[in-house]
Amino acid sequence: MSLKLNLIAAVCENMGIGKNNDLPWRLKSEMAYFTRMTSESKNNKKNVVIMGRKTWDSIPPKYKPLNNRINFILSRSNVYLDGYKDCFAFKSLDEAIDKLNNKDYKKIYDNVWVIGGSLIYKASMANKYFYRLYLTEIKKQYDCDTYFPKLNGNLKEVKDDCVPEEVQEENGISFVYKIYENIDYKEE
Q1: Gyration radius of the chain over CA positions
Q2: 13 in active site
Q3: What is the dotted CATH code of the domain comprising 5-182?
């Protein structure tokens, strides 16, 4: 089975994803969707979540590490992970992918989810293992200082039975879950 990088993100109308290393919105149902998508796996395996150090730092201490998932943190500098279970640091996305492609390691995980930030999304979308983008489109503009990379023409919208298609609403904010597949992805 070939490695598949699934990206998951929520963006507002201006493609913003964050402000001051935090989410500009509070949508409990969207956060529950993120947790369900990145946690659910088959065969009693765990999923891997890949994130940059700033994303790791933005997770409140009571939620670290992300529960029932193997946490991969990418940082060019050292990351303090002592005392955290199922957490591993890597200097680059390529280094993390090498670990994921190790035949012994492939036996312990199911899906791989890239959860941010902006530079990690951009590197993942340029990677040959980029498979799908699960994008929550929030129908409102927020003041952001971090943005999702520009989407290119190699994506086609697809459906997934476990993702609602209808418009969602919470606290007067509408949002929709979209799934885009990389047409250039090839199984190895």
Answers
A1: 16
A2: no
A3: 3.40.430.10
**Domain coordinates in residue numbering, the chain:** 5-182
Region of 43 (left: φ > 0; alpha: ψ -120 to 50; beta: rest) is left
169 is catalytic: no
| Averages of pLDDT over each 10 residues, the chain, 188 residues | 93 97 95 97 92 95 95 94 94 97 92 97 96 98 97 94 95 97 92
Q: pTM of the prediction?
A: 0.96
Letter string b/e over residues 99-127, b meaning 16 or more CB atoms within 10 A of that residue's CB: ebeeeeeeeebebbbbbbbbebbebbbeb
- Are the C-beta atoms of residues 113 and 89 closer than 8 Å to each other? no
Q: Which amino acid is at 86?
A: D
The catalytically annotated residue of 7, 27, 30, 133 is 30
- Of 58, 46, 51, nearest in space to 114 by CA: 51
Q: Please pick, among 3, 23, 81, 119, the residue that the annotation labels catalytic.
A: 23
